[in-house]
Amino acid sequence: MSTVDVRRAADRSATTTSWLNSRHSFSFGDHYDPNNTHHGLLMVNNDDIVAPGSGFDTHPHRDMEIVTWVLRGELTHRDSLGNSGVVYPGLAQRMSAGTGILHSEKNDSADKPVHFVQMWVVPDEPGGDPGYQHAEVDEALAGGGLVPIASGIPGRDAAITIGNRRAALHCARLSAGDGVALPAAPYLHLFVTRGQLALEDAGELCEGDAVRFTACDGRRVTAVTPAEILAWEMHAGLGG
C-alpha cells in the first residue's frame, strides 16, 4: 500500500556547536531514535552548515556510499586515497568507504559558511574497495527536469556511480510554476533543499521538509517559488 509520510524541517534533531549546525533527518550520533533509523536504503540525510575556517577533521568511514551535495559556499575534501579538491554547488561528489577510508571536510573560506547535504546509503556488499568520484551537473540541471545525479541501477546513467544496484539519486531545480513527476519506486525519499513546493494530494513543502514514500506512485511536485529537490529512488529496503 502506498504511504506518504511528511517530515517537517523543524521536527529534525540537531547537533549545534560553535562551528556546526547539523540537522538530521534520521538517527545520527548522539541523537538515536529506534523508530527513525533509515528509510529504504537511505541511512543518513544531514543538512549541515559549517562556519568559516572550520570543519570536520580527519575521521574514518567504512561500508557506506556517501554522496555530498553543496548548496552554498565551498567544501574542501581530502582523503586517505590521495583525493583532494573543492566541492561547490553543481558538483556531485561520491565517496565509497568500502573496507575503510579516512577523510576530512573543511570550510577554508575566511568569511562565508558552507551549506551542504550529506547522504549515506548502504552498499550492495560490505568490504568493497574504497573509491571517490565527482562530476559537474549544473548544465543538466538548467533544463529544469529531474536529473539523475548518482546511480547504481544497471542501465541507468547518472553523473556519478554508487555501489548499490537498487538506488539512484535525482535532483531538480524548478522555476515557479514548473513541476516534475517523482520516480515510481517501492521507497522514495524527497528532500527540499530550497524554496516552496506543492506535493500532489499532500500540500505544501518548504525548505528542509522531507517526504518518505512507500510504493511511490509517481505523483508530481510543483514549485511555488524557485526551488530545488533531492529524491532518492530505492527499489529495496534494508535486508533486500
UniProtKB/TrEMBL annotation:
GO terms for molecular function: metal ion binding; quercetin 2,3-dioxygenase activity. Belongs to the pirin family. Signal peptide: none annotated. It comes from Mycobacterium talmoniae. The keyword Coiled coil does not apply. InterPro entries: Pirin (IPR012093), Pirin_N_dom (IPR003829), RmlC-like_jellyroll (IPR014710), RmlC_Cupin_sf (IPR011051). Fe cation binds at H59, H61, H103, E105. Keywords: Dioxygenase, Iron, Metal-binding, Oxidoreductase. PANTHER family: QUERCETIN 2,3-DIOXYGENASE. It comes from the Bacteria. Pfam families: Pirin (PF02678). The lineage of its organism: Bacteria, Bacillati, Actinomycetota, Actinomycetes, Mycobacteriales. Residues 11-121 form the Pirin N-terminal domain. Binds 1 Fe cation per subunit. Its cofactor is Fe cation. It is an enzyme of class 1 (oxidoreductase). This is Quercetin 2,3-dioxygenase. Its EC number is 1.13.11.24.
